[in-house]
From TrEMBL:
Keywords: Signal. It comes from Collimonas fungivorans. This is Autotransporter-associated beta strand repeat family protein. It comes from the Bacteria. InterPro entries: Autotrns_rpt, Pectin_lyase_fold/virulence. Pfam families: PATR.
């Protein structure tokens, strides 16, 4: 989907449930929002633009590979990645946090952060206090680091572990 070439709106929302064995590849500018109860098993690949999850099962049951663009979550709970998640240097992961206790991204397999940007925003009236530790990512195993972590309205110290990432909120 490349909005600059016409044929699609700059933002397209797929509300239907997607199933089967196919793979979703998002290329080009524009944004694609997925809000169905998706179960497809072929995975998702983001190369450019924005791919947004508006449901916890937006990305189905496969691996998610982000080599460019922005993967955003507006899911009402922890976004479930039922396979592996890989993020490369030229990409952004944007997460909206609604509480400190619930992770925002739950990866059933291995997560690899080979650079890139993590951007965290707060939603639903939640505002952390300085010194709070927020669960951001939980995975079976976690390797690597983000090049940049930005937290809307705060500074933050990343706390990486073998199974995920927490952020300690600063001034």
């Amino acid at each position: 989907m490349d909005a600059s070439k016409g044929g699609f709106y700059a933002v397209d929302n797929w509300r239907n449930d997607i199933s089967g064995a196919g793979k979703l590849t998002k290329q080009g500018s524009g944004a694609l929002k997925l809000s169905g109860n998706n179960t497809w098993s072929g995975g998702a690949q983001l190369e450019a633009g924005t791919l947004e999850a508006d449901s916890v099962s937006a990305f189905g049951a496969g691996d998610v590979y982000v080599s460019g663009g922005t993967l955003a979550s507006n899911a009402p709970g922890a976004l479930a990645i039922r396979g592996k998640y890989t993020q490369l240097a030229n990409s952004t992961l944007e997460l909206n946090v609604g509480s400190a206790q619930q992770e925002t991204l739950a990866v059933a397999g291995k997560m690899t952060a080979a650079g890139g940007i993590l951007h965290v925003k707060f939603q639903g009236g939640y505002k952390p206090a300085v010194g709070d530790t927020i669960n951001i990512i939980a995975a079976t195993s976690f390797k690597g680091k983000f090049d940049t972590i930005s937290v809307h309205g705060f500074s933050a110290t990343p706390l990486y572990s073998n199974t995920g990432l927490q952020l300690r909120i600063g001034v």
